[in-house]
Amino acid sequence: MFPVNDQTTSWEFCDLSGQKRKFLPQDVPVHTRSMDLQRNKLKRVTGISRFPFLVQLNLSRNKIMEFPHELINLQKLEELYLNQNNIRHIPEGIFPNLRRLKFLKLSTNRLTKLPSDINQGTCITYLDLSKNCLKDIQPLVGLTKLKELFVKKNELTELPSQLFHNGTCELTVCKAMGNPLRCPPEEVCAGGVMDIQSYFQHMDENPNTRSAWTVKTMFLGCSMAGKSTLCRSLREGKPVAIAVEDRTEGIEISQLYAEGIRFLFWDFAGQEEYYLTHHVFITPRALVILTVDLASYSIVDPQSFNDQLWFWINNIQLRVPDSVVLLVGTHCDQCTDQEEVMEKKKDIEEKVNSRLANRRTVLKQQKRNLEENANPSLFTDQLDELDCLLEYNLKVLDLITIDCTKMEDIGKLRSHVLTCIQSESVFLCSGCILPKSYETVSQAIHTLVALQKIPQHGIIQLEELRDLILNHVKLSSESLKTILQSLLRYLHRIGVIIWYEDISVLSDRVFIQPSFLISMFKTIVRHDLVQQLEGVSRDLLMQEGALVKEKFTWVDDLRCRGTLHNAAMRILVRRAIEKLIKDDDDLVEEVVGTKREEGIILTLLQHFEVCLPTLVGGGLNPHAPVFTPSEKQWKSASEAKRDPNGACLFPIYLQDELIVCQKWGENRQDDLSVHVYFLPEIPHGFFHRVIVKTCSLYQTHWVGREQCLLCCGNRLCLVRQKKRDEDPFIEIRCRRPEKDEEFRQLWDLILAVISKLFVLSRQWPGLTQQIHTPCPETGCPHYFTWRDWQELNNADFYNLVKGEKLVCKGGHTRRTELLFPKDKHMSL
Ligand SMILES: Nc1nc2c(ncn2[C@@H]2O[C@H](COP(=O)(O)OP(=O)(O)OP(=O)(O)O)[C@@H](O)[C@H]2O)c(=O)[nH]1
Q1: pLDDT value of position 816
Q2: Which of 572, 607, 492, 496 is nearest to 214 (CA)?
Q3: Which of 48, 551, 728, 818 is least surrounded, with the fewest CB atoms within 10 Å of its CB?
Q4: Do residues 284 and 367 share a domain?
Q5: 380 closest CA partner among 81, 80, 754, 795
């Protein structure tokens, strides 16, 4: 929507949006400067040259097939929206005439090629070409004022290096995800313009044409399905039996080189407790091998399909919706005969295909419902979002059946995986070209590991790593510095190393062996943590200066309250780590932490929102200084008071909701309640992180497994996960305030919680929100986008609470529904 200021008179701004028009209207004044024609049914734009004073023109969401040639007459045009049409071709000769054009949005069309003279639109600063079919954007070279470039989801294999030349480039934003990029690889582009520039600079200095190929392969599936067996057998090239007691805890990583491809195998444990870490490690652009035990799979029991397959496919679809999933059925030897194997294969494939197709049908139906609504303009964001979900294409390949104990079957699977990877139509992630210098440095790191110059645990200071590499390569210290930074970023993104550049206390340290870090994670995030704690010996307790009776308290607190004392955590991590790190007390201390300082592991667990430091509060405190209404940045209230020798709350280990229920009491009829719906469902682990995120804002909170209660001033706010008619939503429920100032606090509180929900939900790209849920009390839905929320002011909020309908147009992504009983007015 155009920004219209109050001074704009009607002849200057002409809103013709959403009127199902097939032609331009005749009665618009020729002096019109801004025309909004979005969401009509225009196929051609004939007659637009009658408005030579147009500065802004919005033709988005029409049915335009040809780029309107007449636009060459709009010489004052500065902003042009042509997104969401069907344009296949832009003729030559347009852009030399649009000398004032600054903003051009052409996303979601069918362009395969750009006109060679597009670079004569020399004023263009913003250009969106995402979601087309472009193979080449070389014609953009010469757009010297370009600041923001979007070319997501095209068919680009290269970006033109000239666009990024240091001296001339004004680009500040370049988004190129979703292209089969080789030069620079997508992982370099993800780092933004600076990383791309650095890449091209090194390519200039050390050109390379050879393609390096690394494929992250993730093994997912239920516990005991055979993931570790598959992973290790593939690596060894022969069947490897895994003893039952040798189950995967957390994640294991290993490598395999085959036919010039480096596979990084990530073997994820199947038990529920580990799902909590999956958001950290399940990343896009990987091959997923979903393993199912065919012997235990039941055709007749629908739960079997749900648990063993659909749960995983659904999770993958929510988290990495563009992935390729290879289904592997193990334990064939334990099925009665080949016939049973084939029946199960057929059943699984049919059910997967029908569920995937069904999901699409539901999405399409939802889209139709919105389009047919009396006022579809209220739903444009929802429609966009549904379009995005429809565009994702999770590829689930046919199931391959194997007996992991048979040599022949392991060979069959290995060549099948290679074929899948090499067939680019199936697997987007192909080889990528790196500057020679990157390869040299990468190789040097590899050699240093092999020569054991880098300790086995792989934790190394950045500077120390640089010094070691300098002894191995012919590079100046200065150029190594820049190469190393970009290279480490790249290696981190493809999953070879871990470097948390953004966590200030960890930014000077590199984890050359990710498996080390993960094994630290799994000492804490594990299904048998209580037993592990019970097994702590007297010697270990003494080392930490703790008494045996403290151990009983720890066990009790973990079991009943989901709280792990930091002292207990230190003991557990130290016990695990001392097996890996020998004779390096300083490092052990750094990882484990001390009574005065948090260690690496605790920092990471909090960074990834697995736990939060507890400051278990007392009763309601009317003077609690936690909230500062209208403060832009939400600081963690407990941060300053965090005690490294305190305890951490792990919502995953909580058993019940008792404490929350007790404190909250009964729902009241006049409670304020905001619902945030999610479609298709709330992912596993999502709510635990909501709890961690929201509770970290408050000093006083009580937490249950699927609920948490926050205290703001003397107001209570309940956040909980619920379902209505199978539709999952998160409810934020507050006691109705009495005083004005409390009311404002409450508004900020709701806003803070919702903002956390939105930030979090962005990490699941396959997730959107429920659309049709009218308010049961008033019958009229109030739909809000996140941007609407931010833009609402207190006065709007008062009106809402009074039951007045407030309509917000525009906005971005997900919508929220306000449900305030209409008859309960606030006295303000
Ligand atoms: N007979 C037979 N046994 C298999 C086959 N595949 C796996 N197994 C056995 O099944 C058991 C479980 O296999 P794992 O590879 O540990 O299973 P997982 O999926 O990694 O399990 P978690 O680590 O708990 O997530 C092991 O004892 C394997 O040796 C198979 O095809 N045939």
Answers
A1: 43
A2: 496
A3: 728
A4: yes
A5: 81
425 and 535 fall within a common domain: no
The answer to whether 55 and 33 are in contact (CB under 8 A) is yes
Tens-digit pLDDT profile for residues 340-356: 999 999 999 999 999 99
Output the pLDDT for position 635.
Answer: 45
d(CA 592, CA 599): 5
Please state the three-class secondary structure of 545-570 as a single string: CCCHHHHHHHHHHHHHHCEEEHHHHH
Amino acid at 16: L
Position 141 confidence tier, pLDDT thresholds 50, 70, 90: very high
CATH number reported for the structural domain that contains residue 732 in this entry:
3.30.310.200
Residue 54 Cβ contacting ligand 1 at under 6 Å: no
d(CA 713, CA 746): 9
CATH code of the domain covering residue 405: 3.40.50.300
Number of domains in the chain: 3
For residues 116 and 788, the model is more confident at: 116
Whole-angstrom Cα distance, residue 216 to residue 561? 37
- pLDDT band, residue 375 (cuts 50/70/90): low
Domain termination residue (choose one: 431, 459, 486)? 431
Residue 727 has pLDDT above 70, yes or no: no
Task: Specify the pLDDT at position 582.
Answer: 74
Whether residues 602 and 669 share a domain: the answer is no
Closest ligand 1 atom number to CA of residue 229: 15
Q: Do 289 and 221 belong to one domain? A: yes
Q: What is the CA radius of gyration of the chain?
A: 29
Give the residue, out of 223, 228, 274, 277, with the most ligand 1 atoms within 8 A of its beta carbon, to mutate for a pocket test: 228
Q: Measured on CA atoms in the order 690, 696, 697, 698, is the torsion positive or negative?
A: positive
Whether residues 670 and 571 share a domain: the answer is no
Query: What does the alpha-carbon distance between residue 66 and residue 47 come to, in Å, rounded to a whole number?
Result: 14
Quick one: pLDDT at residue 818? 45
Q: Please tell me the chain's helix, strand, coil percentages from 3-state DSSP, rounded to the nearest 5.
A: 40, 15, 45
Residue 786 clears pLDDT 90, i.e. is over it: no
- What is the complex's ipTM, to 2 decimals? 0.97
Q: Where are the alpha helices (DSSP H) in 138-226?
A: 186-189, 193-205
How much of the chain exceeds pLDDT 70, in percent? 80
Give the bridge partners for 648, in sequence order: 564, 613
- Ligand 1 pocket: which of 236, 404, 413 to mutate (most atoms <8 Å of CB)? 404
Q: Which domain holds residue 575?
A: 523-607
Residue 369 located in a structural domain? yes
Query: pTM here?
Result: 0.76
Tell me the pairing of strands 707-712 and 432-433.
unpaired
Q: 585 and 664: one domain?
A: no
Report whether pLDDT(22) > 80.
yes
Atom 9, ligand 1: which residue's CA is nearest? 226
- Picking from 410, 431, 452, the residue at the C-terminal end of a domain is 431
Please check whether residue 311 lies inside any domain of the structure.
yes
Sort strands 287-293 and 395-401 into parallel, antiparallel or unpaired.
unpaired
Q: 781 and 690, same structural domain?
A: yes
Averaged over 377-391, what is the pLDDT? 75
- Residue 235 pLDDT > 80, yes or no? yes
Same domain, 602 and 725: no
Is the CB–ligand 1 distance for residue 244 below 6 Å? yes
In a domain, 28, yes or no: no
Which residue did the predictor score with more confidence, 286 or 488? 488
Bridge partners, 612 (sequence order): 649
Evaluate whether residue 692 is within a structural domain.
yes
